Amino acid sequence: MVYIAGLVELIIQYAGALTGLFAFVHSALQKRDAYSAADRKTKPIWVAITGGSTLAMGLFPFYSAGYLFWMAGLVASLVYIVDVRPKLNEVQRGGRNW
Predict the structure, then answer these.
(1) Where are the extended beta strands (E) located within the chain?
(2) Are 38 and 92 a contacting pair, CB within 8 Å?
(3) Residues 25, 27, 28, CA angle at the centre, nearest 5°?
(4) Confidence (pLDDT) at 72
(5) Are 74 and 53 in contact (CB under 8 A)?
(6) Rounded-to-integer distance, Cα 91 and Cα 48, Å
(7) Is the pTM for the entire model greater than 0.90?
(8) What was the pLDDT predicted at 98?
(9) Which of the pair, 17 or 2, is modelled with greater confidence?
(10) Could you tell me where the DSSP H helices lie in 32-66?
(11) Nearest to 17 by CA among 84, 65, 85, 69
(12) What is the pLDDT averaged over residues 8-24?
């Protein structure tokens, strides 16, 4: 049973780090003016936030005392994915396309 719990913790750890990596790469590949057109923070700020969150999730394990840093990194990455990314995509595509 302990082995399964350790495996689940490891999966959560890597899934969070991959989420942060996705947010970082996406934020780095977007156009600089898309951020201002979407009325969000600037590109360097979001690249720094998502890069820092990915670094925090990579350095601090999910199951240790650094859990708070890991969770803060996950929240920052998810804010980018849920809030900023859809706005950037909408601005760059020119609205909603069904």
Answers:
(1) none
(2) no
(3) 65
(4) 94
(5) yes
(6) 21
(7) no
(8) 54
(9) 17
(10) 32-37, 43-59
(11) 69
(12) 92
pLDDT for 65: 84
C-alpha 67/C-alpha 51 separation (Å) is 18
Give residue 50's identity as a one-letter amino acid code. Answer: T
Tokens 């991959």 locate to: 18
Q: Are 92 and 39 in contact (CB under 8 A)?
A: no
User: Does the pLDDT value for residue 55 go beyond 90?
Assistant: yes
CA 1/CA 19 separation, integer angstroms = 27
Give me the pLDDT at residue 63, please. 81
Taken as a whole, the chain contains a residue count of 98
Per-residue tokens: 72? 């803060």
Give CA separation, 4 vs 9, 15, 67, in Å.
9, 16, 20
Q: Are 25 and 78 in contact (CB under 8 A)?
A: no
For the record, the structure tokens of 57 come out as: 């999730």
